[in-house]
Amino acid sequence: MSSTSGLRIAFAGMAALAVAMGIGRFAFTPLLPLMQDDAGLSVVSGGYLASANYLGYLVGSLLAPHLRVRDETAVLGSMLIIGIVTLAMGLVDHYPTWLVLRLVAGITNAWIAIYAFSWCLERLAGLGKPVLNSLIFAGVGAGILVVGVICAVLMQVAVRSAQVWILLGVLVLVVTAAVWRTYRSGHGAAHRVAPRAPAGRVPWSRDAVLLVFCFGVSGFGYIIPATFLPAMARAIISDPAIFGWAWPLFGAAAMISTIFAAALLRGFAPRRVWMMCHLVMACGVVIPVFWNGIAAIMVAALCVGGTFMVITMLSIQEARAAAGAHVVQLIAAMTASFALGQILGPIVASVLFDAGFGFASGLLLAGALLTVSAALLWSAPPARITTRG
Is-contact 281 221, C-beta < 8 A? Predict the structure, then answer.
């Protein structure tokens, strides 16, 4: 019975993260080429839409500790909101409204990420099933993969972007209904709303600054291809039967790397693996600059998609080692840095593109920052638990 309950909890978490990331955050990425065609959206306008969503993620992260709701209520309510605003993206043809809708989706995206992890991990630990945690993380890649496949297929039959937004909104509502009973049943340990601990201060040290900086760089580095990869592929080959599969490949790499990361990385120091992930991501980010072709885009999708969620998992381990009892404060600072990197990435890339430098300049900048951060991670001493208040 506990096995069944554990799987239901893990799949409920996986579904919530698939909605939050695959649709709430990244549905815009495979839809950007369609919106360029039928809504006249430019790369710069698309960059600002993406950054509005990432700004929402930052705002949501900052607001989350102050919410006084049960975890499951926050998750289900946020999933409903993402469904509604996704539907609205297809029903409204007004750019300023789109900015607001993507901002709201970003806020609720952050709430799902925070509260779904809290709800699921607590119950899986109570059931003695922490091995199922990787399924929850795999929800990010699964959501990207499913949405990418849907968009790749629909692009081949000339469906308009508004229709795809509506379809994805309906899909969110269906998924929300499917997991509603699991979250409302309170599977596993009983849960009550307890006052959240005071925010406290970040245990700043040289190591903490390093972790915050490097995680922020990973946010800046991965978000440029994560926002513009299909648009870059479309600029090379206009046939959606080919360029449309860049994004599903990104999602598949993210899902598979998350599921197998724990087994494959056993015995390696997390910080060293984090460093290697930055180098692999840097290669994936810059390879389209030096290798012109759809194959380069696909390699980039594998390199970036296969590392960005592994970096997230490793960064949490390193934060625990570096901050001890103050881990929540350090993770909050790292999350804010990551969110800031996500906001700046599309803006910087869009401005450079509009200035006539193309995508290459933004990709090279991201690759350089990832390489510098990898060198810092390599040279840093092993993390030590800090107990200072």
Answer: yes
| Cα separation, 288 vs 274, whole angstroms | 23
Residue numbers in the chain where pLDDT is lower than 70: 1-4, 130-131, 186-203, 324-326, 328, 381-389
- Cα-based angle 352, 165, 98 (whole degrees, multiple of 5): 50
Closest CA to 59 of 347, 339, 346, 342: 339
Rounded Cα gap, residues 121 and 126, in angstroms? 9
Taken as a whole, the chain contains a residue count of 389
Beta strands in the chain (DSSP E): none
Residue 130 has what pLDDT?
A: 67
Residues 316-368 have pLDDT tens digits of 778 877 776 667 678 778 888 998 999 999 999 888 988 888 889 999 999 99
Which domains does the chain show, CATH number per domain? 1-187 (1.20.1250.20), 198-389 (1.20.1250.20)
Angle between helices 358-379 and 206-236 (to 10 degrees): 150
Instruction: Supply angle C-alpha 209, 26, 274, rounded to 5.
Output: 35
Dist. CA 84–CA 243, nearest whole Å: 29
Angle, helices 133-155/28-38, rounded to nearest 10 degrees: 20
Kindly state the tokens that stand for 354: 């509009």
Paired tokens of 115:
């509260």
196 DSSP assignment:
P
Q: Token pair for residue 212?
A: 């915050």
